[in-house]
Automatic annotation (TrEMBL):
The gene is LOC100822389. PANTHER family: CRAL-TRIO DOMAIN-CONTAINING PROTEIN YKL091C-RELATED, PHOSPHATIDYLINOSITOL_PHOSPHATIDYLCHOLINE TRANSFER PROTEIN SFH11. It comes from Brachypodium distachyon (Purple false brome). This is CRAL-TRIO domain-containing protein. It comes from the Eukaryota. GO terms for molecular function: phosphatidylinositol transfer activity. It is found in: Cell membrane; Golgi apparatus membrane.
Amino acid sequence: MCISWTLQKWNCALTYWRLLQVENTNSSISKMSFRSIEQLLRRNSKTKISQSIATGIHDQKEEKSVQSLRESLLASNQLPEKFDDYHVLLRFLRMRGFDVLKAKATFLNMLKWREDFAVDAIAKDFKVEEYDALKRCYPHGFHGVDKFGRPLYIERIGLVDLNKLMQVMSIDRYVKYHISEQEKTISLRYPACSLAAKKHISSTTAILDVKGLGMNNFSKAAREMFIEIQKIDSNYYPETLNQLYIINAGSGFRALWKVLKAFMEARTLAKIQVLGTNYLSTILQTIEPSNLPDFLGGTCTCSATGGCLLQDKGPWTDTRIIHASEEPSARHVDPTSGKKRTLGMLLEDNKVRDEMSENIQQNPVNEQIFGKIQELEDCAVQTKEVLETLICKQKELAIHILQLRKLLGDEAHAEKKQE
């Protein structure tokens, strides 16, 4: 899947390179009419610049499954406008292995849960009066982005004072707090990160510091809260985790981990790496030191704001993004594609318009050239990300091969001794 996706990106880049060659061979770009360039673009590009940022490049098989799920939901009048979104439907399909019927059942279960639990009211009205006290006894929060542009979430669960946490906030209120944060991530953090990274972002990279955590200090109440949160995230916010690094995992936590794994699905476990104290080289492959707090080995201190985990640091705190999210046009349908315009699309349109308006008025061809540059840059960035992932996997495979060879060597040595 990764290799085919990589080839798709290379094909995208080559297509535009060939297009540029054809244009330069046939005639000078400056002499081409606006209409002729527009026709070439329509034949060689499925989406506009702003759409590619908001929606990404679609896999044809995935797009077909999304369309099938969407049509099925629309036919039964069970697709609220809020969730009539390509990537929302895709997340539920991925969750159920692209079985449309199972994905539909899970999607409808999510809608029922939202209604029963009054999720929209929680997202709008829930206030966390205990915020400061909660942060003191449970250090956690968003802190910048990873190298791909995804939100970076950090928890120092090994420092949690469970007794004090239970006094500060009940399990019921903590669950509502968690839901409100998930809603904020979906509605604001991901669109803001998509704008900043100039590509579609819909998942989070997380670090869980478990130093000092083990069976003895993980109470029954804490286990119940963990199970409830895991159930909510897995069933109602599926496929929003990109990677979870569990760091400083000692023998105590590893014993606890054997128990916790039983409550997690295989698709989630596949995204989790359990690391010991020598974790830094691994996570620095994904996260820049400047976005990693100093207590985890990075260079950020956030001393002016009271500490790295006390602030909701990230592109979503940009005032321009907050203002744009309130504009009604962010929810309008794009007449050229029939798709809803997302916040990321709106903001990118504004950015391009501000930077290019004067130049475009003088020469409209520049808009098309700029578009090609942007799409080529997107292809290059995404291809680099896939290559980095493949290199990382290659190293892991090499380690596994060495371990297996050593195991065979040990067994052969043991057999010789027995002879």
